[in-house]
Amino acid sequence: MTEAIDVKIKERLGKARRILITGHIRPDGDAVGSMLGLGLALENIGKHVQMVLPLGLPHVFEHLEGSELIQREVEGEIDTFISVDCAEFSRIHEELQTFGEPLLNIDHHITNTKYAEINLVEPDSVATASVLVEHLPVWGLEINRASASALLTGLITDTLGFRTLNMNPKALRQAAEMMEKGAKIPDLYYRVLISRSFKAVQYWGKGLANIERDGQMVWAELSLKDRKAVNYRGNDDADLINILSSIEKSPVALIFVEQPKGTVKVSWRARGEKWDVASVAAEFGGGGHRAAAGATIEGSLEEIKLSVLHATREIL
Ligand code: 5GP
Ligand code: MN
Asked: What are phi and psi of 290, to 5 degrees?
């Protein structure tokens, strides 16, 4: 059944001439995969599409067909602004916020603030890519091999390889469908979930050397000094949080990553359906999902660790 919102979106996309698509800041596989999945499909029907990430494409996604089209700046006029996988207006890169609220916001975060004119937000979907796989054909857009590879990347990364608690049969069927369109699971899976740089693993070593545990919580920190010591280039945790969240008898894991301008990026992961870490993240101005949430908080590593651990203990 075609819902009213699909009719509206199809009509607006039909009229669109110059389209801008972006994802959230610090883009992950779902943000990039959704940008490309949608952008390439729109290009294929002759639209002028600009897929923009002001800080560029993270290296891990450079193998994706069409990723070379992702640009850092908007060129010329645009008439249609679309955000994907972005729960809040403030998670759109500052430079792109000057284009105002998007026409269309396509997402799956339960915390989405519906900041666009049209908001297609489906919290039961495992990824924004899953929302797109379902809706693109309804909007008359075809998923070719390149789009399928991008969308499958979103499905794989947001479900950590089809194993998060929110996994559903639909996502597996969609993955199969993307394979039928030419996407290669072993290659995509290896590149986004398995392969690591030598430096990233050295950086893990820094964080793992001092992991701490209290009751059901386990945590680690990565300071700017740690990052410098191994010359790790990213400003993230190199996915160390996923190792912490595998520690038995510690269903809640946190990581504190010191950032250059006096802030700390905190990530939470919860195993099991009992806890909602997004609610704690929200107390600190962040958000996310019940099982995976994050926030960027102003203050020193020590201060933030104290207050965040205290607030997290409250929900346990
Ligand atoms: P991560 O900790 O891996 O960066 O993010 C985990 C989840 O929390 C993702 O779904 C991500 O979109 C969300 N998230 C991370 N940081 C923030 C933030 O600052 N604000 C909001 N609203 N969500 C965040
Ligand atoms: Mn997502």
From this structure: -50, -45
